[in-house]
């Protein structure tokens, strides 16, 4: 468990300029402690340290609002999340921290402009699953997310629990119309975020949020989503994390059904009722969920002598050099770049969310024309 000084070290390091989760763990792996990494970082011109005073103010602000700040050193840090290589080093939680390690859990995601039937379906499934002790996790967005949270909280005599993962600070309500929903979730469940308190909504935050949504649960259900929806990216992340993927089929004439229908074609579990989900979750819960190697524990990419060039290189830019408009196989990209499959996957996700590449059949990617 992190003491207050260790927590300040982690807060300061992860919020330093150009330090993301993967770089954080590389630094931690090489220097052994965040404190030692902070002492060494000023010699690298690319980095700018987050002020210690700002970290202290962040900690005081969290304590004053009864917000928990967890690191991977804490027993309460969610086990499902701990083993993805870009797990948030610091996690903010408002509400019931114990829910983060509940045995059975499912993420429900889908369209913001959901149909009435889609919202009803999400709500009813969340209600039935919560009554069967499955914790519902979603992102508190409009549409399917909100419907899922509401259905979960209406279960168990209107005392059902749920977790909302935000793309803002844990103390910022987005969208603002969900203020009442936010307060209810905080009272009956938990609000989670990796972003600094007070952080406002930014488009780049939500893809990052999605990896937490998928990783926290044993599986992800997509109710309605277009082919280019962030919900499909959440589903793909879930599959890459070794989790089950579920989808509600819909009319081929409805663009919001194209995403789930494609997932089913690609092997997702077709869902008609909550029993379809329970059968899979309960069966697979007896086996260890496939988890990626924690790079904090095993990292073969750290050079013997750290140099700014090697440590700070922007691998997403390097990957772009190998991708053309006609498309390249991901396996070939791994071979040419020398990066691991998991690193390639993360960089491709960033490029895809930036609108720079597109996925093609046969596990190929191409620059967008």
Number of DSSP strand runs? 12
Radius of gyration: 20 Å
* Global geometry: globular
What letter string, H or E per element, gives the SSE order? HHHHEHEEHEHEHEHEHEHEHHHEHHEE
How many helix segments? 16
Q: Tell me the β content.
A: 5-15%
- Determine the mean pLDDT: 87
For the report, how would you describe the main beta sheet? 9 strands, mixed
Q: Give me the secondary-structure category.
A: alpha/beta
Terminal CA distance: 49 Å
Helical content class: 40-55%
Show unreliable segments.
286-317
Order the strands across the largest sheet as they lie in space: 1-2-6-5-4-3-7-8-9
Overview of this protein structure:
By secondary structure, the chain is an alpha/beta fold. It has 16 helices and 12 strands. It has helices spanning 4-14, 21-31, 34-40, 52-64, 79-82, 116-131, 144-158, 179-188, 205-216, 230-240, 255-265, 274-284, 308-312, 315-320, 330-337, 341-353; strands at residues 68-71, 90-95, 105-109, 135-138, 162-165, 190-193, 219-222, 244-247, 269-270, 328-329, 357-360, 364-367. The strands form 2 sheets. A 9-stranded mixed β-sheet has the order 1-2-6-5-4-3-7-8-9, with helices on both faces. It has a 3-stranded antiparallel β-sheet with strand order 10-12-11. The longest helix is centred in the middle third of the chain and has 16 residues, at 116-131. The model is unreliable at 286-317 (pLDDT under 50).
